[in-house]
Amino acid sequence: MTNDKTIINQVHHVENPVLEVHDLTVSYDKKPVLWDVDLTLPYGKLIGIVGPNGAGKSTLIKSVMGLTPNSSGYVKLFDQSLREARGKISYVPQRESVDWDFPASVLDVVLMGRYGKLGLFRRPRKADKDIAMDSLRKVGMEAYEKRQISQLSGGQQQRVFLARALAQQADLYFMDEPFAGVDAATEKAIISLLREMSAKGKTVIVVHHDLQSVTQYFDWVILLNMRLVASGPVEKVFTTELLQETYGGKLTLLSDVGDLIRQQQFPNREKTPDSKSG
Amino acid sequence: MDSFFEFFSFSDPNIRYVVIGSLLLTSSSAIVGTFTFLKKKALVGDAVAHAVLPGVCLSFILSGEKSPIILIIGAFLTGWLSLVLIDIITAKSKLKEDTAIGLILSVFFGIGIFMLTIIQKSGNASQTGLDQFLFGKAASLVGFDLIVFAVIAVILIVSVWLFFKELTLLAFDEEFAVTLGLPVRAIELLLTTLTVLAVVVGIQAVGVVLMAAMLITPAAAARFWTHNITTMIWLAAIFGSLSGLAGAYISYIAPSMPTGPWIVVVISTIAFISFFLAPGRGILYRVKTQRRIKKQINDENILKALYHLGEEGKKFYEKRTLQEILSKRKFEPQALKSGLKRLRSDGYLKNENGYWSFTRAGKRKGQRTVKLHRLWELYLTQYLRIAPDHVHDDADTIEHILTPELEARLEKLLNYPKVDPHQSEIPYG
Ligand SMILES: Nc1ncnc2c1ncn2[C@@H]1O[C@H](COP(=O)(O)OP(=O)(O)O)[C@@H](O)[C@H]1O
Ligand SMILES: [Mg+2]
C-alpha cells in the first residue's frame, strides 16, 4: 500500500479514505457491543469484514448506514456526512432481515433500489425498469423477473437483494453475508461481479464468514471481535497471530462490563459539547 | 323480498346516500388496513379502534352535541395519544409491545365505557345517537355527516395512492428505506395518521367494538387470493365494500338493528371462504395438493417395485402378479389397487388377465425413480458423510421431489457414478 499514512495497533490508515469511522461505539439496549472502532478505508477495493459470530460485523455496517439507534463517534463517507452521501451508498441486508412472504415479484423488489433516486410520488419509469432488468441479468436472475419472492430459494433471495443494490448505482456498497446459502458456482459468479465493480472504481465492503477464501477474494480485510482487531491489506493483517486474537475466545470481560453498563443505566461515554452522533 | 329490490335498485336517494357512505367507509378502511396488515400491526389497529371511544365521549360531554367534526377531532386525539403511549412504554420500560398494546387498549376503552355510562345516565345518549358509536349504524349517516366522512374516506384513498411506493417499501423492508434516505419517520407518521383516520371513519359503519376486524380482515382475506400487492388492495376494498353494502341493507330493513355485527359477519364469512377455498394458500387446495402428492408417491413406488423386479435378470417387460409386486414393497391393498388402475389409464402399465407389465413410458419412469434414489444415497454418503445403512429412508422421500434440474446438477456433481453405496447399479436412460 503506497497510501498508508500510519499504522496504529494493526489498523492501517489511508489518506483520502472512502470511509472514515471515528471512535465508534455502538450499543443495543444500553449495552455496548462494539467498542471504539477507528478506521479508514481506501477507494476502489474489495474489502472483507471477518470475525466470529456475534462479533459485531453486522452492527458495524448497520451503524455506518445509520440503522443503529445508539452510537457515539462519527462516520464520514466520501468526506461527507451520512446524509449527504446517502445517494452514493448501498446496503445489502442479511437475507433473514425481511419476511419473504410478501406480495411482491422479483422485479418489484429490485425496483425498490430505484426509489431513492425517484423521490416521493414518482413511479418507476421505463429507464428504471431497464436498470432493474440489467441488474437482474448481472446476478443471473433475469428469468425470474415475474416470480413471486415467496417462491425463491435462499440463494435466489440473496441474488435479488444484490440486484436491488446494483440498481441503486452506488459507489460504495455494504453487503452483509451475501454468500450465505448460495451455492459454490453462484458464489464464484458473484465474487467476479464484485471484482468487476471494484475494477470500475467502486468500493465493496463484504461481511464474510469463510476464512478459507479471504485471501483469494479480498484486497483489504477488517478483523473484528467486539472491537477492531486489525484493518489493512490482506497480506499484512490476515496473519495467524491476528486471527488467533480475533477468534481466540469470547471477550468475557468486555461483555461483562457491557452488561454492567446496561444494568446500571450508565452512559457508555460522557457527553462532551462537541461530540456528534452517527 | 320487496324491500330487497327496493334497496338494490338504489332509486330512493336516501338509500343511495347510505350505500355510497357505507361503501366509502368500509373500502377506505380496508385499503389503509392492507398496509396495517402487511406491517404486521394488526394489534395496533385494535388498540386505536378502542382508544377512540374516550375521545368521542369527551368531545360530546364538552360540546354537548354530536357534531361530526368535533367528534372526529376527539377520536383522533385519543387515538393518536394511545399510539404515542404505546411507543413510549415500549421504548422506556421493560414491557414488550404486545403487553403495552393490551394495557393501553383496556385502559382507554375502560375510560371510554365509563364516560359513555355517564352520558347515558344523563339521558340524552340515544337521542344524540352517541351509542351508535359502539356498534355502528350506517343508516344514521345523512346530510352533512355523510359529506364529512366521505371527504375523509376520499383523502385516505388518495393518500394511499400517492404514497403507494413508499408505504409498500416500508412494509417490506423498513431498514432499506432508511438507507435510501427516504423520510421514513414522516411516512410512518403518515401511516399512523391514516390508520387513526380510517378507524375514525370506520366506526361510523361498524362501531368501536368491531372496528379492528374491519381494518384487518379484508386484507387478510385478500392475501389468500393474490401475490400482487395492487390486486390485494383492490380485493380488500371489494371485500370491504361487499360487507359495507350488506350492513347498509340491514340498516335499511331493520332500522333498530346495529350494522356493525352484520358487516363483520359478512367480512368474516368472506375471510373463512378465502381461508378454505383460495387457490394456493387455501386449506382445501393444500389438502388436495397433499392428496395428489401422496398418490404420486404411491404410484412411483409401484413403478419402482416393478423396476426392481425387472432388474433381476434384466427382464423389465415381464408380466407380474400382485404377489410379486408386494414381495418388493408392502403396499396397502387399496392403495396398490387404485395406484395400478391410475398407472394403467396414464399409460405406464398394461394389464393382461390380471398380470401387470411396464409400457415403455412406465419403465422409463420407474427407472428414473430408482436412479434418483440411488443418486441421493450416494450424495448423502459422499457429501454429508452419512453411513450407508442410514441413507435409505431419506432417499425414499427425496426421489419423489427432485426436479429434472436438480437431477442434472446431482449427476454432474457426483460425476455420473455407476453404482450407489450398496453397489446397486445406477441406471441411466
Ligand atoms: N437488535 C439487537 N438488539 C440487541 N442486541 C443485538 C441486536 N443485534 C445484535 N445484537 C447483539 O450484538 C452483538 C453483535 O451482533 P452482530 O453485529 O449481529 O454480530 P455478527 O454480525 O458479527 O454475527 C451480539 O452479541 C448480538 O447478540
Ligand atoms: Mg451478522
From TrEMBL, chain A:
GO molecular function: ATP binding; ATP hydrolysis activity
CDD domains the UniProt entry points to: ABC_Metallic_Cations (cd03235)
Pfam families: ABC_tran
Keywords associated with the record: ATP-binding, Nucleotide-binding, Transport
Taxonomic superkingdom: Bacteria
The UniProt record lists the keyword Nucleotide-binding: yes
Domain ABC transporter: 19-251
Family, per entry: Belongs to the ABC transporter superfamily.
Name this protein carries in UniProt: Manganese ABC transporter, ATP-binding protein SitB
Lineage: Bacteria, Pseudomonadati, Bacteroidota, Cytophagia, Cytophagales
Automatic annotation (TrEMBL), chain B:
Limits of the Iron dependent repressor metal binding and dimerisation domain: 359-427
Highest taxon listed in the record's lineage: Bacteria
Protein name: Manganese ABC transporter, inner membrane permease protein SitC
Family of this protein: Belongs to the ABC-3 integral membrane protein family.
Record's bilayer topology term: Multi-pass membrane protein
Matches recorded under SUPFAM superfamilies: ABC transporter involved in vitamin B12 uptake, BtuC, Iron-dependent repressor protein, dimerization domain
Transmembrane segments: 15-38, 43-63, 69-89, 101-119, 139-164, 176-199, 205-225, 232-254, 260-284
Organism: Fulvivirga imtechensis AK7
Alphabetical UniProt keywords: Cell membrane, Membrane, Transmembrane, Transmembrane helix, Transport
